[in-house]
Amino acid sequence: MHIKTTTHEHYALSEITKPYAATVTLHITADCYSENSPARTALLLLYPDLVLSGSGLYSREEFQHKLDELGSSITISESEGRISITMAALAEKLKPTLQLLEILLTKPTFKASEQKRATQTLKNSLELFKENARGIALSALRNSLFSNESRHFDVPPADVEKALTGLSTLQLKQIHAEFMNAYWTISVGGNEASLMVVLSALKKLKTASVLTLIDKEIVLGTEKTSRQVLLHEVKSKQNIELSIGGHMPLTFTDSDLPAFLFGLAVLGKWGGFAGRLMSTVREKEGLTYTIYARADGITTSEVGYWRILTFFAPKDVVQGVTSTLREIESIVDKGITKSEFERFKTILKTGETLVFDSLNNTTALVHTNLVYGLQWEQYKAFRQAFQTVTQKEINAALRKYLNPQALVISAAGPIATVQKDLSAFARKK
Amino acid sequence: MSKLLKKPATLSKHFTHRKTVGSISEYVLTKNGLRVLYKHIPGTGVVTTNITYLVGARDEQPGETGVAHMLEHMLFKPTKQDLKKKLDAGATRFEREVGAVLNANTWKDRTTYYFSYGVEHFSRVVGIEADRMREVVLADKEFLPERTNVLSEFDMYNGDPQFALSVAMTATAFYSHPYGHETIGFREDIAAYTTDKLQRFYNHFYRPNNAVLMVLGDIELAPALEEIFAHFGEIAPEPAVELRPVIIEPAQEGIRRIEIVRPGTTNVLAIGMKHPGFPSSGWYETMIVLKLLVDGPDSILQKKLIDTGLAATISVSQEPTKDENIATIFITLTKKTTAEKMESLVRKLVAELTMDFIQKHLKTIVTKTVSEEIFNRDSSLDIAAELTEYVAAGDWSQYFETEKILRSITGKQVKQRSQALIAPNALTIGNYKSI
Lengths: 429, 435
Known about the structure:
Order of helices and strands of chain A: EEEHEEHEEHHHHHEHEEHHEEHHHHHEH
Helix content of chain B: 40-55%
Mean pLDDT of chain B: 94
CATH class of the largest domain in chain B: Alpha Beta
Structural class of chain A: alpha+beta
Radius of gyration of chain A: 23 Å
Number of strands of chain A: 13
CATH architecture of the largest domain in chain B: 2-Layer Sandwich
Order of helices and strands of chain B: EEEEHHHEEHHHHHEHEEHHEEHHHHHE
Largest sheet of chain B: 7 strands, mixed
CATH class of the largest domain in chain A: Alpha Beta
Shape of chain B: globular
Number of helices of chain A: 16
Largest sheet of chain A: 6 strands, mixed
Number of domains of chain B: 2
CATH topology of the largest domain in chain B: Cytochrome Bc1 Complex, Chain A, domain 1
Shape of chain A: globular
Helix content of chain A: 40-55%
Number of helices of chain B: 16
Oligomer: heterodimer
Strand order of the largest sheet of chain B: 1-2-3-7-4-6-5
CATH topology of the largest domain in chain A: Cytochrome Bc1 Complex, Chain A, domain 1
Structural class of chain B: alpha+beta
Low-confidence stretches of chain A: none
Largest interface: A-B, 67 and 68 residues
């Protein structure tokens, strides 16, 4: 597999070439974040459905049928103001699939009847969020760490729902214009011939980049000075979902970041059993099924946050949180061990190697990093830093950015019987 | 399409070549019956090994539901050798030292353990699998906390209305066949497990002649087989293990119903429909009917339920199980309708599926499914995951027949299948009510 990233006037591009690949995947992402108002959020949530709801002479159903005839797919999603299109096709069906993509992007119809339908569907989804305990816990954490000027702030579903009623078709068309005129990040994975076909089509399609919506000024989060406990009752759940975390004032350009991420992996590597939290809270104490830690929301120009994701049965939640805090305190006070330092150098390297077993995973990885502002060579250099960072630097970064006395414990689930005990964590040392 | 090839030249004397279909070859370790599936994927530096034991939830007795899954958890605990050397379990130690992708899963017909890693670790991984096939120590010290973890896993699933419905609906849909409980088992059974129960299960089913070891990736055949022999060659088979009893489910006479009432705001209607086992034509016909109903903006239920605001979400579940099972449509209701009205509407819509509609979409569904199959075979890990289901169903070479089966299905078959699926003797209806 060969990987190359380049920047151009109107787009950044990554090309992932695999000889004889039978499939082609194309990702296009544009950053359309400008503000976090309920109306803007509602528009961005509606937009993906509406773009796929009629193009050129095709109705929503007809367009999908055309794609299905080719065995291809085009999906559109939105996350934190970034709009992404993913196209997947067999190499032999690439040209007609690209023609459909072109129609989709250049001739969306935005019919009022479709807007009405999509609005109703979105309202129903927002209603279901009331019982999404994991999502509620995470949103509460994010909103305690960031003001609504940040893209990491989640506008409450009830506010989004209210805003839905006043939206016009013109506003949706404006979102589309913003997408088309924004600076694109494009990634293509496939064989050499496929890549040439895709790039030729995109060069015709992407001729302008007139809007720069990203506020380059870093929107910092709220640094906590004490522990905060946020509780939300969701009666129908069996477990209490937790997002425990804090603000992380680092971007990909900060030299402390590799050290901090290394230390966070030792604490709770995402997936598998390698992290300390899985070893202790799950395996030794039997308190939960999964407990992982990660950093989210960081780019080369934006700061993010770190969080631990887990859940406990109501009867175990106090012990579970106590054990989790104990592990955080331990890694901050005593640091990672020499053995952990050596092992995780290997673990972090292996994780990288395994991605290349899959063209689609490789394309997605390269694209995500390019969206975050990292060219492939820069990303490789960032990963290489995991091999050169010292144990001392890791422990210093953990002490600096992981403060067990100033984090947020956000819980959602059947909390009624443990509300008082959980609230007490705000005062406990 | 499948292509039978000649026996490869480089074959260890300890193995018998059984067959080669497409790019995959099967070998049997002559001494103990361990089957090996091998596929060479050069140039990646990565190997996936996957060992699938032909034991799953269907092999459990009443009162011991979920024991296959519980045992899967225990295979991540130390073996006799590990304890002697005062080491953690081989699999977790490997992950903590190397960082490979590894995990396991249990389903109705099988239990599967897999690793994906750099080729240089092949010998170590094969050694771990061989060691834990027979040597895991099932003691309370490791077992009791793990049982709590499994209860935690159960509660995680059980907070989801769809899971709660599935538990109750399978128990109602099957009177005799052991598909009548979910793989994780009933909570009360999990809480009552003992190491004795696990040990009996382990002794009987975890044997080389009840396992299929897949080796897919950047490794040559001859050294792979030699390593496998070195680690598995001395493990004894269990003659009785291959005798899985044939259980014929009594005929269903009329619709079966269950109801779950919980606090909350979500109301879900579930329509379970009995369908033939995987990978028969009937299984794929069912898949096509479900796609006609639920897949994409042109599907019947999307247009009539989601687009009209009667339902907030629709999803389907169809498991690739060896024997007849139930496929389920889950419909999250909005305040605009009731479960009774929704059930009536969906059954009417399925009954009225026209040949025109079926013919219009059949070819595109098949094209799309075949295309998705190609995407799903992107990495050694993906290939192993899919191949596992064919191994569990009894004939891995059917992995190469998917397209042929799909293209042979006619509109008439799909119409007949749709009617069979909603016949009263195939239906189990679940109603999840929030109060």
